[in-house]
Structure formats: C-alpha cells, structure tokens
C-alpha cells in the first residue's frame, strides 16, 4: 500500500496518542497495583480468582451467610497464601500437610477432593467454642469404611486431654464435641448413599447436637457444656489423635455457619444441588 508523504506525520501522531492513552488506562501489559477484590499485595489478577464462577448451590449456601465456605473446585496448586479458595474472604488459604490429595475429582456439585487415607489439608481454625450455635455442612463419599475424621478441629493440652470437635465416619456419619477428654456425641447414624456423595449436616444450638444425612435427622444428643476454644487449625481428612486412620474418600462443598440452619434452609440447599 502506498501512503502519501503528507500522511506519515499524521499516522505517527495518531500512534503516539494511542500509546499514551493505553498507558493511562493500564494497557500494554501494565501491572495492576491491587489484587483482585481490592485486598492484598499486587499479584496476577488470575492467580486469586475463584476457581469456579459459581452455581445455584453456591448461591444458596452464600445466601445463608456462612462464616467459611470451601467449594473445593481447586487445582491443587498454591495460589499466594494457600491451596484452597475460601468464598467468604475471597482468598486462598490452607496447606497440604501430608500426602497428595487428588484434586478435580467428581463432586456433588462440580469438582471435589479425594483423599487416599494418607493425606490431609490444614485450614484456618473456626471458633465453634463455648456454647456458640453453629452448623457444619459438607458432602462426603466414603471409599473405605473405617473409623476416621472427615473434618475436625481439636487439640490435646495436656497430651491426654482432648478438646474440640469432629465430624466422624465409619459405616455412617456422626459428630463429637470434646472437653478435656470428656466426649459427648451423636451416634454414627447418618447413613451414606450407596453411590455418590451424601449431604452431611451437623447443627448445635447451645443445648443439643444433631446429625443429618440428606436432610433427614439421624440422631440428636444433649450437650450444654461450655467448650474451651482451641488454637489448632481445622483439618480436612485428618488422622485421629487416638490412632484413627486418615479418611479415605471424597469431600466437597464444606461450609460453616455460626447459626443453626433450619430444615427449610437444608431443603433449599439439597434442591439447589440438583439444579442444572
């Protein structure tokens, strides 16, 4: 193509204007000084992005105001400060402390994490102490039926005195609260599905604990004790402190609330999990 001599100056001027405009707008590879969400140090915007855009189930969970929610759609890589994306704080947290969990396994909603009986992940502690009301909600498939901790936060100080809580499984799901080695617990009565992941919910209202499987109350147990707070991290698929084996199976969509989810909320979550 031939360009008239008089047009060259105009083209140069135009390109200079575009380049200046691009620099002002942060184009041409300029680095954003604020991480996604406006919090934290400058990072690649994609590094701290949620691993999944969301779902009807995630929307239902978030509408009920959890204090922590792990969708477990993660890829297994460490992103900034952690390996799992937490939906409430919109940040990556936690670390693999043993073995090699299998990320991107088939889940109840999207992807999940499968644990092989030799692996677990530590997460920030959640204060479920005193007689604070709470709900723990997650989806679980048991691959190997043995006494294991699915999700727990407990410590031994001194060594023989266990304090904390645990979602347990063997051939069914149950829940325990410990205070200086004194355990109060539901029966391991919430039966797993024959196939797929079971929706497991634990509630505590300050006076009693309930364990539900797929929306059905399996057992209730009284407990009005005030439990001391612990300083240890919460753990997915931990080996127990009494020699229990680490959990073997799949875990998905872990949410914690500082209030009791009622039957209507639990039913909404179950219905949302079936939504396309």
Descriptive notes:
By secondary structure, the chain is mainly beta. The protein has one domain (56-273): Sandwich (Jelly Rolls). The strands form 3 sheets. Strands 1, 5, 6, 8, 13, 14, 15 and 17 form an 8-stranded antiparallel beta sheet that branches. Strands 4-7-16-9-10-11-12 form a 7-stranded antiparallel beta sheet, with no helix packed on it. Strands 2-3 form a two-stranded antiparallel ribbon. The model is unreliable at 1-47 (pLDDT under 50). The protein is globular and about 40 Å long. 14% of the residues lie in helices and 36% in strands. Helix 2 (56-63) runs antiparallel to helix 3 (263-273). The protein has helices at 5-24, 56-63, 263-273; strands at residues 68-70, 84-86, 91-93, 95-98, 102-106, 111-116, 120-123, 134-142, 148-156, 162-169, 173-179, 182-185, 198-204, 208-213, 216-222, 234-236, 248-257. It has 3 helices and 17 strands. The longest helix has 20 residues, at 5-24. Strand 10 (162-169) and strand 11 (173-179) form a beta hairpin.
Sheet-strand content, in percent, reads 35-45%
Number of helices: 3
Question: How much is the radius of gyration in Å?
Answer: 24 Å
Outline type: globular
| CATH architecture classification name | Sandwich
CATH top level class name? Mainly Beta
SSE ordering: HHEEEEEEEEEEEEEEEEEH
Structural class: mainly beta
């Amino acid at each position: 193509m031939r360009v008239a001599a008089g047009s060259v100056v105009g083209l140069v001027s135009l390109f200079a204007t575009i380049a200046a405009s691009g620099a002002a707008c942060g184009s041409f590879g300029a680095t954003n000084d604020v991480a996604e969400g406006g919090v934290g140090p400058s990072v690649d915007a994609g590094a701290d992005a949620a691993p999944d855009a969301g779902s009807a189930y995630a929307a239902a969970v978030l509408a009920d105001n959890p204090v922590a929610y792990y969708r477990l759609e993660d890829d297994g890589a460490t992103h900034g400060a952690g390996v799992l994306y937490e939906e409430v704080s919109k940040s990556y947290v936690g670390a693999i402390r043993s073995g090699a969990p299998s990320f991107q396994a088939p889940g109840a909603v999207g992807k999940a994490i499968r644990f092989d009986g030799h692996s677990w992940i530590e997460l920030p502690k959640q204060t479920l102490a005193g007689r604070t009301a709470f709900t723990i909600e997650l989806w679980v498939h048991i691959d190997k039926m043995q006494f294991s901790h699915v999700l727990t936060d407990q410590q031994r100080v001194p060594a023989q005195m266990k304090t904390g809580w645990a979602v347990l499984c063997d051939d069914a799901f149950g829940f325990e609260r410990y205070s200086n080695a004194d355990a109060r617990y539901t029966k391991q009565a919430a039966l797993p599905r024959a196939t797929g992941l079971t929706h497991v919910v634990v509630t505590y209202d300050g006076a009693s604990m309930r364990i539900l499987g797929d929306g059905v109350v399996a057992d209730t147990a009284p407990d009005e004790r005030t439990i001391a707070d612990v300083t240890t991290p919460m753990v997915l698929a931990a080996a127990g402190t009494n020699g229990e084996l680490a959990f073997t199976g799949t875990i998905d969509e872990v949410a914690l609330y500082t209030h009791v989810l009622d039957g209507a909320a639990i039913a909404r979550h179950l219905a949302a999990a079936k939504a396309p």
